[in-house]
Amino acid sequence: MVSVLILTFNEEVNLPTCLKSLAWCDDIVVFDSFSTDRTLEIAKAAGARIIQRKFDNWSAHQNWAVANIPFKHSWVYYSDADEVVTPQLAAELQRIAADANRPEVAYRLRFKNMFLGRWLRHSSLYPTWVLRFFRPQHVRWEREVNPVPVIQGKEGKLNEHFLHYSFRKGLAEWFRKHNNYSTSESREAVKSMSRELDWKGIFSNSFARRRAALKDLSFRIPFRSFWIFLYLMIARRGVLDGPAGWTYCRMRAYYEFLIAAKVHELKRLKAGQPPG
User: What CATH fold (topology level) applies to the domain 2-164?
Assistant: First the structure.
């Protein structure tokens, strides 16, 4: 009663564990961006359907998926390949999908970010509520990276979590991916700073509007990498996550530094100056 959508590109390391956690599902769609490793072989062996499209940006890619993929069921759970659906979450998803009288058209849930063998309960900004379970015709996304969902209808929250193993490919892959993310985020930051800040949105009851307003505010904070490190380590008690938390907080601060540096570069280019 639930279809699953997995976005992939060269995910031979992560995909087997992800698919194993989805053995209960009879409609798994691997939405692939022309992988060159064993991703497609692994997906076929698991009985998943494979649909390929060249990746352009996150929101466009996800919007294409919900608009064009013929899912078997009316409810879709979206998963990245480095995520695991727990048995408890699987049961909750199926229970909701079986209830035709529910007014909600989409659900958010929390995740546990795993690093160096432990759950980063404090430094990973837990609980972060992300949209993953929805009726496709009611959802679309905006922004190039870290897309924001726009929901047409009532949304709810799930009780269970999924597990996120974003470091299974190693630290080099994490830095490569976040270097790419920072380029897109810098473009979003420049666009954000060209428009008036939505002050009322910061206090809005709408999760999507509040998150977007806080994101725009964060782009305007000077020395953001320094402040994010202090925020994660002290205010969010990342120090309680031990060496894993210390390492993760420094990596997050570096990511914020990359965004700020690239914003500076984009402003110089816009002013007709050389980037460096």
Answer: Spore Coat Polysaccharide Biosynthesis Protein SpsA; Chain A (3.90.550)
Average pLDDT over residues 118-136: 96
Q: Is the confidence at residue 128, as pLDDT, over 90?
A: yes
Q: Is the pLDDT confidence value at 276 over 70?
A: no
- CA atoms within 13 Å, Cβ hemisphere of 26: 4
So where are the chain's domains? Answer: 2-164, 171-270
Q: Which residue has the higher pLDDT, 15 or 202?
A: 15
**Is residue 218 over pLDDT 90?**
no
- CA 159/CA 157 separation, integer angstroms: 7
User: 3-state secondary structure string, the chain?
Assistant: CEEEEEEECCCCCCHHHHHHCCCCCCCEEEEECCCCCCHHHHHHHCCCEEEECCCCCHHHHHHHHHHHCCCCCCEEEEEECCEEECHHHHHHHHHHHCCCCCCEEEEEEEEEEEECCEECCCCCCCCCCEEEEECHHHEEEECCCCCEEEECCEEEEEEEEEEECCCCCCHHHHHHHHHHHHHHHHHHHHHHHCCCCCHHHHCCCCHHHHHHHHHHHHHCCCCHHHHHHHHHHHHCCHHHHHHHHHHHHHHHHHHHHHHHHHHHHHHHHHCCCCCC
What is the predicted pLDDT for the residue at 207? 66
- Taking all residues of the chain, what is their mean pLDDT, rounded to a whole number? 93
